[in-house]
Specification:
This protein has about 270 residues and is of the alpha/beta class. Helix content is about 40%, strand content about 15%. Strands 3-2-1-4-5-6-7 form a 7-stranded parallel β-sheet, sandwiched between helices. The relative contact order is 0.14.
Length: about 270
């Protein structure tokens, strides 16, 4: 599955999954282009690749700034002449709202702030609308491309609210986070966006698929991991590099007849 000379844009590319995708793409001889608004994470990733002397481009970017995205697209076309793949990894999280402390990202639904809800929907959906529109249009001109939108298992089924709440019988104190409705709603919408674009751009040989991961292990509370793992047939959370194989497959010619598909990578969780 050689990605030799393939230009692969990764939005949210400095994040937990995006950075893993970038490393894997380089391993398969592709050229990752990282778009992210987290300056600290971008700098850390840039230093990592600089030490290894690997070919990669970075752009500090607000994914809701259409003019900025258009400028980046023009710069990339000028430099590389084409864009082969787009991976939309960016999504709204608690950490991305740290500068807005008056909003509670994990508030109970009954008390959820409308502005918090709207901001989350805007970031998760409007940003992906723009990146698909701008970079997909360039693929259309080239009559070739692969787009991968990162959704979630909670876009397919409801989050299991029990894993966040205190359970005295199981000696579980609960955790101070959950899966907000806005997140689950936006991920479901991403799956539908994927299906829409897969049929819309099929005449131009642009394939559009989504990947729906379940929980990714990232230094979570041990008791929470246990609670979640008990609801997964493989009895564990995913490691951060376990989505890479699907990414490489969907970027490569080995998936040339796959479009409009939502690949669920959840250890069997949604099979129950």
């Amino acid at each position: 599955m050689d990605l030799k000379k393939k230009i692969v844009i990764i939005t949210g590319g400095a994040g937990l999954l995006g950075s893993e995708f970038a490393k894997s793409i380089i391993e398969f001889n592709g050229i990752p282009i990282i778009l992210d608004n987290d300056v600290k994470a971008l700098t850390k990733l840039k230093n990592f690749f600089k030490k290894k002397k690997l070919k990669i481009d970075f752009f500090e970017c607000d994914l809701l700034n259409e003019k900025n995205l258009i400028k980046i697209s023009k710069d990339l076309i000028k430099k590389y002449k084409k864009i082969d793949c787009l991976i939309n990894t960016a999504s709204q999280t608690k950490s991305s709202m740290e500068n807005e402390k008056h909003y509670d990202f994990f508030e109970d639904f009954e008390k959820y702030n409308l502005k918090t809800f709207q901001k989350s929907i805007e970031y998760n959906l409007s940003s992906i609308f723009l990146t698909n529109k701008i970079f997909g249009t360039l693929m259309k001109k080239n009559r070739s491309g692969s787009i991968i939108n990162i959704a979630s298992d909670v876009g397919v089924v409801s989050p299991d609210h029990r894993i966040y709440k205190k359970n005295i019988k199981l000696n579980y104190k609960g955790v101070n986070f959950n899966t907000p409705l806005s997140y689950a709603m936006s991920k479901a919408a991403i799956i539908n966006l994927t299906k829409y674009l897969s049929t819309y751009w099929a005449p131009y040989n642009i394939r559009v698929n989504s990947i729906s991961p379940s929980g990714i292990s990232n230094n979570h509370d041990k008791k929470f991991v246990e609670m979640l793992s008990n609801r997964i047939p493989l009895n564990r959370m995913a490691n951060k590099n376990e989505i890479n194989g699907a990414i490489i497959f969907l970027c490569s010619h080995y998936s040339s007849y796959i479009t409009g598909h939502n690949l669920i990578i959840d250890g069997g969780k949604t099979a129950w």
